[in-house]
Amino acid sequence: MTTITTKVLAFSLLTSLGVMTSCSDFGNENLNPNAATTPVTSALLTEAITGVPPTTATGALLDGVAGRLTSLAPEPRLFAQYWSQTQYPENSLYSTTFSDWSRYYAVTLQDLQTIINYNTDAATKGYVAQFGSNNNQLAIARILKAYMFWVTTDRWGDIPYFNALKQDTQVTYDAQQSIYADLFKELKAASAQFDGGTTVSGDIIYSGSATKWKKFANSMRMLMALRLSKVDPTTGKTEFAAAYTDAAGYISTNADNGLVQFTEANQFRNPDNALFDGRDDYGVSDVLVNKLKDLSDPRLPVYAAPTTAGTYSGLPYGLNRNLLIQYTGANEFSRPGTKIIAKTQPGYIITASQMLLAKSEAAVRGWITDDATTAYNAAIRASWEQYGVYDAAKFTAYTTSTKVAPTTADFLAKIGDQRWISLYPNGNEAWIEWRRTGYPDLKPTQYAVNESKQIPRRYGYPNTEPTLNTAAYTAAVAKLTNGDKTSSRVWWDK
């Protein structure tokens, strides 16, 4: 395992946006002559993906992408109704009013920006080239940086973007529409930057494969384009088609899935394993279990563990504490399946099933001319194969059943249901897609405690922003229909 010998880590003074500090007043008095003065960029890349030291369990990449919060409840999974809470249901009742983004900006994004800085600075680019050609490092760092900004803006809406990592003391929030436009350009430019030089080390997603990173970037462009389906379908169609037809391709087979491969070592173990290490805070929701039962879906034994009676029983979603105590005291319920919470279970970021469903939706919308049903069925098969449950006869019966086979009238709804099933346990993406499409037809808990009594549509800005970055925060909040609340909607959420 690669370790970090030194790292330039930024700390925020205002909005966790990376203000560098130094001890220049003391000359060379505090400098260690044996310490490296240029960071090991391969170690920074690994840290940006997974998180080091082991106490963090997972970096902000998976923290944001897969909703895998290890120090907090995984709210997106609760919002998407994948899981229910067993005894402390506050987050299932939507008590969350804001979320902190400091790990995104001050750790993951700053790590990636440091990689970019040292691979472009004439004084350091020669040294760090030992960890991969400068262009290859830049391409990967730019793609991951774009991904993290995408996750961040989809969670909060308008965010600091263009000047976020330039060490300014006051940083304005940029419009999500402008951020999307720039991310489309950035992904294209980053993909074109790969060269035939030394393979990048420290990449535990694709082992430095330029071919696969280009597919990842195109896949991200396609998913971003679909985000615009209601707010700007013309741009969405153009961007989707451009990425879909790009010669580099997109993630269409499980062999190209974007995933983090965890190992037995604690600092690289599946963060879901850490969530259930000596704790029993979550069960698979009755919403998910009942849906899989209704469809006779073979993914059920993978997604959920059986009770001691050998049955699958979802934990009722959204009960208040008194009702939860009564229910769990009298009933067994299913926890996540052993495969899902295994130490070495990969952290899936973008999958073939996800992209084939995106292709099917684009075909239904008339954005591309491919057959929507073929792509839809291929997506289901890819998900079954991803989890090792594919059987030809069962697949035929499943995809031809009236509950799964789409019609003209319900095609988007069927895509939405299958997207929700196949994304499990990626709660963040499932929550975002529910916000965009309204599928599946999730109902808020009757015991909701938030102001709208509805499933949250966004996160509130960090609670330090009103006092530490007042002008920028005030201007951003003024653009939100309901103010800085979870009921306000981001730009594309119409």
UniProtKB/TrEMBL annotation:
UniProt key word Membrane: no
This protein's name: SusD/RagB family nutrient-binding outer membrane lipoprotein
Keyword Lipoprotein: yes
Organism (species): Spirosoma agri
PROSITE patterns reported for this sequence: PROKAR_LIPOPROTEIN
Leader sequence residues: 1-21
Keywords in alphabetical order: Lipoprotein, Signal
Matching Pfam families: SusD-like_2
Highest taxon in the source lineage: Bacteria
